[in-house]
Amino acid sequence: MKFKKTASLILTALLAASALAGCSKGDGKSADGKTTIEFWAAPNPTQQVYWKEMAKEFEKKNPKIDVKVSPIKESPTSEASIQSAIAGKSAPTMSENINRGFAAQLAESKALVPLNEIEGWDKLIKKRNMTDTIKTWKFSDDNQYVMPIYSNPMLFGWRIDVLKELGYNEPPKTYSEVIDVTKKLKAKYPDKYLWAKGDLADPTAWKRWFDFFMLYDAASNGNNFIEGDKFVAKDKAGEEVLKFMDDLRKEDGLLTKQATDPFESALGIFTDLGPWTFSYWEEKFPEMKYNKNFALSLPPVPDGQSTKNVNTFADTKGIVVYASATEDERKAAMKFMNFVYSNPENDLKWLETTKLPPARDDLSSNESFKAFFDKNPELKPYAEAVPNAIPAIDNAKFNELQTHIGRLAVNPVVKGEVDPEKGWKEMKKAIKEELKK
Amino acid sequence: MMKKNGTGWLFASPYLLYGIIFFAVPLIWSLYLSMTDWNLISPVYNFKGIDNFIEAVKHPGVQAAFFVTFKFMAAFVPMVIVSSTLVALVIHGLPKFKGLFLIGFFLPYLASGVVSSLIVKGLLSQNSALNVFLRGIGIDIDWLSTPLSALLVVAAIIAWKFTGYYALILTAGFESISKDVYEAAAIDGVSSSQRFWKITLPLLYPALFTVLILSIGVSFGIFTEVYQLTGGGPNYATNTWQMEIFKQAFTNLSAGYASAVAIIASIVTFAAILIIRKLLEIWGKRNGWV
């Protein structure tokens, strides 16, 4: 009797669940013909506000599409959350905050939709004026998996106040000039360092974007490091970068121990700087003023190399559409992107909110952004460097490969444990073996 | 028989269900995954047999994890046993407010590993007051980039975290030793060292045994502090099993391979705890404590 009761209860629950599930037609449209797209935004309040505002405006003009914006969970990282969601078949329609390396991992596993296959892609590129910028984003299979939101050319910051004390009016541009600065710095301030950065001794893969790749992209004139499954890095450029680091070490110009706010406290006078730093400084270090106590420059280059149009690493992130999205959801996602990026005002709003340079060709020439850059002159060098910025490698094994760069080359060289040539050779061997796997 | 024990099964069912859902099913799934090259995302994956296991035992990260765990054990277990025993002794000797002090020492156990790691990172930075002072007296240590000091720093944070928890167990052990025994020993003229070896240690042995086994278990599960402070470096010097599994599964997207590492880690953990437990039991029996 009891069993019958329990069984009928379970059956009723199952029927109710089936009936509820029936409300959705399985093509991404609800019974009222509305398409709902789920958009995972970066887990920071400013980007949340931006995307929610965009979604609201879009929905007003497109009543048949709902855009649900929610933050990507960071448990423990946003990448891990996305992987878990895909594995658990609960991936959103689209998400932002995806770097090129992670996109390559997802694309290799067929988890992403090639955006160039969705109608409206070409229109989007044209309308946003990003024909040149998007070229460096093409993946090795000739597809475009990421719609770049911002392309942030990484620049080096210099403590110009200290440089002036040493007799320099502008940052040095070549390796030998930097070594001269180091010598003068150590003579005047033995406790200060040229580059105080604990991450130089850390093998974590992404940390190489903000030291090795900035210097390598500059030294190699933007030559690729990996193409498809091939190691194509210029040996000369790579060895020169490592030798530069080694020379700085020999002059006692490197501090590879962790230090709190080393650049702000002028313990180190040279550091990689992204535009996100300035909002942080406004709050925590209001005394940091552009061209008063810090200046910005492109990476230094080996002696004899042109110091004009120097390449640098581009910290870039963008939007992807997941393969689990239905046809209607894909179309709606493209429509949403077209809505956001067809109006430069939305990019301006982005720039004002996040201070991250939109990935467009006309950033330094479009009148819409002029007033912003006049008001924020420290961001102008970033906008100007966009065309020379090289995005991250698009190999799915980028984590393993960049760990080899750290573990076998950069980390031991800055500690004086291996000479630059040997470090490069061992790194190259390990990377080639990894690519063969 | 089933009908007779119905109530028992009913009461045990929540745990059984929990065990099946969160232990048995993931274990079987993990065993299966460990023989594939699945990356958590791809709909297609291949059967690799025992290749993942062979690759894992050859990998420097896995080899490091094996040895690093025992190094952590060698540093953390003595640290936490000494500190928790001292805390327990002090609290045991207090005339009042024992509970209040125990709660105070227990609080770090509830603290977030991320927060405590970040605080320590700040304390050990090159320009921290501590390091400025140390350099002033001629001591200059690269705390987190030197293999030994990085290992000791992580072990010390975990010891700090667990001291209060283990002190709670040891205090209960101290409290259970009757004062009469000490009084009788004093009348018989027993010296203080004899009192420790012949009375305190044997009677504290059950609590100490528990704390030892628990702390050895902790050594196999270290992650947050390493993830936050050293990332497993320098050059794998603090690379724990959990760190290696995390890196392979979520950074390198090699879920199949990471499952193989997880299985190797669980076998090593199970075997090590079993052996150490047996040795502790033999030690206790030989001395007539159990």
UniProtKB/TrEMBL annotation, chain A:
Residues annotated as signal peptide: 1-21
PROSITE patterns (UniProt xref): PROKAR_LIPOPROTEIN
Entry keyword set: Signal, Sugar transport, Transport
InterPro entries: Bact_solute-bd_prot1 (IPR050490), SBP (IPR006059)
SUPFAM superfamilies named among the record's database cross-references: Periplasmic binding protein-like II
Superkingdom assignment: Bacteria
PANTHER family: ARABINOSE-BINDING PROTEIN-RELATED (PTHR43649), CARBOHYDRATE ABC TRANSPORTER SUBSTRATE-BINDING PROTEIN (PTHR43649:SF13)
Protein's name in the database: Multiple sugar transport system substrate-binding protein
Automatic annotation (TrEMBL), chain B:
This protein's record includes keyword DNA-binding: no
Family under the similarity heading: Belongs to the binding-protein-dependent transport system permease family.
InterPro entries: ABC_transporter_permease, MetI-like, MetI-like_sf
Keyword Glycoprotein recorded: no
Pfam families in alphabetical order: BPD_transp_1
Transmembrane feature ranges: 12-32, 72-94, 101-124, 144-169, 203-223, 255-276
UniProt cross-references to Gene3D superfamilies, sorted A to Z: MetI-like
Membrane topology field: Multi-pass membrane protein
Keyword terms of this UniProt record: Cell membrane, Membrane, Sugar transport, Transmembrane, Transmembrane helix, Transport
Subcellular location: Cell membrane
Protein name: Multiple sugar transport system permease protein
Annotated ranges, domain ABC transmembrane type-1: 66-276
Alphabetized PANTHER family for the sequence: ABC TRANSPORTER PERMEASE PROTEIN, INNER MEMBRANE ABC TRANSPORTER PERMEASE PROTEIN YCJO
